[in-house]
Amino acid sequence: MIKKAVYAGTFDPFTNGHDDILRRSLSLFEEVTVLVAVSPSKKPLFSAEERVAMLKDHFKNEPQVKVDSWAGLLVDYAKNNNIGVLIRGLRPTGDFEFEFQMASMNNKLYPELETVFLVTEGQNYYISSSLVKEIYNHGRDVSEFVPEAILERLVKKLGES
Q1: Taking the model in full, what pTM does it have?
Q2: In 24-34, which positions are buried (b, 16+ CB within 10 angstroms) versus exposed (e)?
Q3: Residue in 25, 58, 88, 129 annotated catalytic
Q4: Is residue 91 flagged as an active site residue?
């Protein structure tokens, strides 16, 4: 059994959909690193440090979960940390084509890294970080879309709606 996996994304913010994928992956792997991706082409609401802090707070009672950030290629992080599996969540919104292309390139760059796709559960398939931010910015309640620790940081960052 492969012991270590990585679940990477911008997680801006981390949603219940992300949480579902992560928690289900814990039954498959001994350790999962939630890796906050730092992308120069994206302008996140939360800094990488803030996202790491939120995730560490959210998973403070989960010894199987590690939290880190990375500004390089994911395959390099996996190789440097002896991680053999990349976890990716799939929604029925056209994710597969992009994810398949990314998995194929990752395999070319680091053949020892296997990509495992987990299908997002029905109650979460329509949730995305960008939609959560949009809804919140229009004064609506997003508490059913994000974990409580994340909601607290969102309210602090953007103010009460």
Answers
A1: 0.91
A2: ebeeebeebbb
A3: 129
A4: yes
27, 41, 42, 43: which one is catalytic? 42
For the chain, give every domain's residue range: 4-158
Q: Is 94 exposed, middle or buried (0-12, 13-18, 19+ CB in 10 A)?
A: exposed
- CB < 8 Å & 24+ apart, contacts of 139-144: 144/16
Choice among 18, 51, 58, 88 that is catalytic: 18
Q: Of the CATH numbers 3.30.360.10, 3.40.50.620, 3.30.420.40, 3.40.910.10, which one belongs to the domain with range 4-158? A: 3.40.50.620
Q: Is 18 a catalytic residue?
A: yes
Per-residue pLDDT of the chain (161 residues; tens, 9 = 90+): 569 999 999 999 999 999 999 999 999 999 999 999 998 787 899 999 999 999 999 999 999 999 999 999 999 999 999 999 999 998 777 778 888 999 999 999 999 999 999 988 877 778 889 899 999 989 999 999 999 999 999 988 877 54
Determine whether 143 is an active site residue: no
Active-site residue 88, yes or no? no
